[in-house]
Amino acid sequence: xxxxxxxxxxxxxxxxxxxxxxxxxxxxxxxxxxxxxxxxxxxxxxxxxxxxxxxxxxxxxxxxxxxxxxxxxxxxxxxxxxx
Amino acid sequence: xxxxxxxxxxxxxxxxxxxxxxxxxxxxxxxxxxxxxxxxxxxxxxxxxxxxxxxxxxxxxxxxxxxxxxxxxxxxxxxxxxxxxxxxxxxxxxxxxxxxxxxxxxxxxxxxxxxxxxxxxxxxxxxxxxxxxxxxxxxxxxxxxxxxxxxxxxxxxxxxxxxxxxxxxxxxxxxxxxxxxxxxxxxxxxxxxxxxxxxxxxxxxxxxxxxxxxxxxxxxxxxxxxxxxxxxxxxxxxxxxxxxxxxxxxxxxxxxxxxxxxxxxxxxxxxxxxxxxxxxxxxxxxxxxxxxxxxxxxxxxxxxxxxxxxxxxxxxxxxxxxxxxxxxxxxxxxxxxxxxxxxxxxxxxxxxxxxxxxxxxxxxxxxxxxxxxxxxxxxxxxxxxxxxxxxxxxxxxxxxxxxxxxxxxxxxxxxxxxxxxxxxxxxx
Amino acid sequence: xxxxxxxxxxxxxxxxxxxxxxxxxxxxxxxxxxxxxxxxxxxxxxxxxxxxxxxxxxxxxxxxxxxxxxxxxxxxxxxxxxxxxxxxxxxxxxxxxxxxxxxxxxxxxxxxxxxxxxxxxxxxxxxxxxxxxxxxxxxxxxxxxxxxxxxxxxxxxxxxxxxxxxxxxxxxxxxxxxxxxxxxxxxxxxxxxxxxxxxxxxxxxxxxxxxxxxxxxxxxxxxxxxxxxxxxxxxxxxxxxxxxxxxxxxxxxxxxxxxxxxxxxxxxxxxxxxxxxxxxxxxxxxxxxxxxxxxxxxxxxxxxxxxxxxxxxxxxxxxxxxxxxxxxxxxxxxxxxxxxxxxxxxxxxxxxxxxxxxxxxxxxxxxxxxxxxxxxxxxxxxxx
Lengths: 83, 428, 384
Prior knowledge:
The structure holds three protein chains of three kinds.
Chain A: E1 4-9, E2 12-17, H1 22-28, E3 35-36, E4 42-43, E5 56-59, E6 62-66, E7 77-79
Parallel strand pairs in A: 1-7
Antiparallel strand pairs in A: 1-2, 3-4, 5-6, 5-7
Chain B: E1 5-8, E2 11-14, H1 18-29, E3 34-37, H2 58-68, E4 73-75, E5 79-84, E6 88-93, E7 96-101, E8 104-107, E9 111-113, E10 126-127, H3 129-138, E11 146-152, H4 156-165, E12 169-175, H5 179-188, H6 193-204, E13 211-212, E14 215-221, E15 228-233, E16 236-241, E17 244-249, E18 251-253, H7 256-260, E19 265-266, E20 269-270, E21 283-285, H8 295-310, H9 318-337, E22 353-355, E23 360-361, H10 371-378, H11 390-398, H12 414-417
Parallel strand pairs in B: 1-7, 2-3, 2-8, 3-4, 8-21, 10-17, 11-12, 11-17, 12-13
Antiparallel strand pairs in B: 5-6, 6-7, 9-18, 14-15, 15-16, 19-20, 22-23
Chain C: E1 10-13, H1 17-28, E2 33-36, E3 52-53, H2 60-76, E4 91-95, H3 98-113, E5 119-122, H4 123-129, E6 139-143, E7 147-148, H5 151-164, E8 168-170, E9 173-179, E10 182-187, E11 192-196, E12 199-202, H6 208-211, E13 218-229, E14 237-240, H7 243-246, E15 254-261, E16 266-273, H8 284-297, E17 306-316, E18 323-326, E19 333-337, H9 343-358
Parallel strand pairs in C: 1-2, 1-12, 2-8, 4-14, 12-19
Antiparallel strand pairs in C: 3-7, 4-6, 5-6, 9-10, 10-11, 13-16, 13-17, 14-15, 15-16, 18-19
Helix pairs in contact in C: 1-5, 1-9, 2-9
């Protein structure tokens, strides 16, 4: 049974399963807008495997990180809706 | 950021799905030092992905166990962003950048989903069928959610069944192929009894009448996320409220690395000979890269490629060859059965987004242009995904073929890609 | 394919930024123009170019041409459609050392004498204007009226301007030869045919010498890298002053720091120069040298996601001045080619010179230094 750890999403603390893909964690928490497109549309994961780039979020201050490829780890700081 | 260092192996396998695992296993059992590189969090690629709480499919478990008994090493969460046969592969992982050099390589980079744009396809909670499955296995919750699974291909049923088992309300499964085509395919499945049994099990997991043929999604609607889906069968339309739409139209080979390495390509597939050797000496390829055909031929071809990469094998064990050919035959029938209906070409409305990375809409694209012209004029295909999503759609809509592949692949940071030149600077 | 029933007054060969600009200027002056391109408008060197509109003063002639052309782009700016992404970004010529800063001051004075506004920034002012540049730089020469735009879109706009005045564009129409009184062409999958015209302008860039043997134009290859979107990483186009000092790396190639912020928020990273014929491949050592330079000046680039690299060919001449003017050996033939890295910048002034020449009118700047015939006479090249 995998451990629960705490991550921060848009300033709020959440408990998630350690090692689960960040994108799945965000979806599980009801996030629908991961990023906004060039023309301002809300976007969320599509391919689940790192090729569509729609699941990009800012992690630890670094923009454009594909959340479907990032395993949740304790202390992860995530911001959504950034380009 | 770190400086790059080089590691040497006898065989480098790129892709940790069925083909890659089989190749790495065979090569390692033959006594070679093998590394198997995959961008995923855990081994298995896409088709052998499993939820953390559950076990992988039995055949995956068997192969993973067999691989673990060899000396083959895994590089997980590792992406190949650049490479050249002599110089090696530039691999970016959680610890930094590594140059992997190996005189033999096996490219087993699998397939990607084929997306056809339709009104509303860019709404959140509209995913590919495989993408939704990946997210489900990753822990996405679907209990009580109204789910539509649509598009085309043998993945629709298993994914719908998995969703149903996880508590989703399957509103519909919409397969664009006709009953006639599928009927012929089902008949051919007599030679693949296990698939028949699996199909029956999937159907049993869902409400009767949920599976509809010659049906596709005409539009998805909602504010900020999908809220309803309109399905069309002939001239009948039916709109259902929907929380999650899983929609994609089959698979296309993932060949960017093979192209970067200079491998000959034909019709979007890597050209290989009888022992899975590509046109580039020392580089082999197996599985979906050589033509989408599913798990069984991928394993057989992976074994062939692994053996060929490990030795100077020129002839293939007949049993292995039989499995490969049977698999390829099945794939041909699959392709016929699930061939895409011409109407799908007209799903997109003028304001439908075609290139998601750059928000290029159908009306922005002039059919009289060449593919390269469209790229330069609108930036379609020039965004982060570099055409992975819109490329097949553009080919489908305008017959524009994929342009050139340039490094780096998959948008690494400059510092990670060029770790040996971007040493840390004192910040002021 | 048949010969056109009404011959154009001028055939312009090559619908890159130079040819498109010439077509627009000629059309605006009442001439019937046919613009031909083997592929599509803006699909050659123009399409892979940076799109920097910059006043450069390696020579008086270059300064006159770039300054005049920048003025013309500035006048055109309000009418440019959004997809041209035209912005008055300014250029910052970065001085790493005090010696370079002193040279920058001299340069500023020269530019000022030609009516080009400049400012000198010291170390502190530079850091305030561009906070992401590394510390310890002596300062910079700021040229605020330089611009950045997206070349394929600007080229299409110039073509539309020409078409609005009656010009015709034929894409997929390869010119096989420039003959007396016209050109022979072959269209995609078709047979050869002849198009007659009294005046032909060879604006074929790196391919110009194929059509006019003897033109001293060679392809000088460059690399570019584009990042994902990071708006605000820099606000002006950043170029190092110490270009000469950093030149001549491996194998005769040279690299220099040159980073451009695009309207999309993406960064374009350059630049490199090498003479390797028509080899389009990425040259790893050259690319690395270019990146090393870029990250040295702008360390945050190391954290930027890289979407793509590409190469392109600058049409280069021996004296680094373009060939603009009449080509005497063939009646009615004019050359507008060889602009090296200043094609976008000088397109409009080039078109102005060509138009004035064809109409036998005076042009605002002297065309003499750009005469293609200068290259035919040994020792004729000291023209400034």
